Amino acid sequence: MPPAKRRKTAATSEALDRDAEGQAPSSEPQGTRTVDKPHEDKEPVIVDTGAASADQNKERQERFKALQARAQKSARTNLKEAAAESQRLATDPNLLSSLSRKQAFASHNLLKADTVAAGEDFERKRAWDWTIDESEKWDKRMEKKEKHREDVAFQDYTQDARKIYKRQLRELQPDLEGYEKQKAAAVQKAALSGGLEIVEMDDGELVAVDKNGTFYSTADSTDFIENKPEKSAVDRLVKDLQKAEETRLKKRRDRGKGDDDGDVTFINDKNKQFNQKLARFYNKYTAEIRDSFERGTMI
């Protein structure tokens, strides 16, 4: 019995129509595509991929040219900096400072010569550029510098001790912050114990009043023996002592007292050179006398 024919319904006819439409060749040109929108009432949008690719390539070329320009600029800058660094390393800074001093000295002499040739007072004309206060400070500085230049040589031990004391005072750095902290702690401790009374003035200022007269130190006070210095102060004291010892040993070596291979017959380096000069000329005449004297001393 032959198979029964299937009846074509409305649903199967619609499916066959859709398959036929999907297998139909596309009539759109190559390089374009159609984008279907979800809404059926709008027309399809055609996007040109060739134009988009051209714009993208153009943008990439512009970016590449910008990177090339930046690389060339960086190379030129690095080359310039390297040349400047090489020139700086090849130049002696002492020579530059010497040339600047010579230039300033030459300018000073030229200005002085022109002023004298014009019949004017050079010092008076140069003082026009300075105020009275600055001029007085400069004069005091020059006077102090002249005194220091004259005070370099050794005169006596009192002057030497005075110079050492002044140098130590210049190098001393007081700890003002630590002093204020210790002072505040001492005032607070005395106020709590009843030795000090804190009184507020009319303007709001706080004043400490010593009621018993025991807060401030006197000649009979012994509170300073309980003071414990900081480690930095102790280190600074040790450093000063070591520096003084090194200076003493250096002077001892300069005087020749560190040599154990003979007697010291001089008081300074100049006297040592004079004795050596005498020895070169007169040792051949006094050798026998010195030998006889040494033998007699040994006996």
TrEMBL record:
Q: Which Pfam families match?
A: SYF2
- The yes or no answer to whether the keyword Metal-binding is present is no
Major subcellular location class: nucleus
**Biological-process GO terms, alphabetical:** mRNA splicing, via spliceosome
Q: Which InterPro entries match?
A: mRNA_splic_SYF2 (IPR013260)
* Superkingdom field: Eukaryota
Q: Where is the composition biased (Basic and acidic residues)?
A: 34-45, 56-65
In which compartments does the protein localize?
Answer: Nucleus
Cellular component aspect of the GO annotation: catalytic step 2 spliceosome; post-mRNA release spliceosomal complex; Prp19 complex
Show the segment(s) annotated as Disordered.
1-93
Q: Where is the composition biased (Polar residues)?
A: 24-33
Task: Summarize the subunit comment.
Answer: May be part of a spliceosome complex.
Family statement: Belongs to the SYF2 family.
Q: What does this protein do?
A: Involved in pre-mRNA splicing.
The protein's name: Pre-mRNA-splicing factor SYF2
Gene name as annotated: SYF2
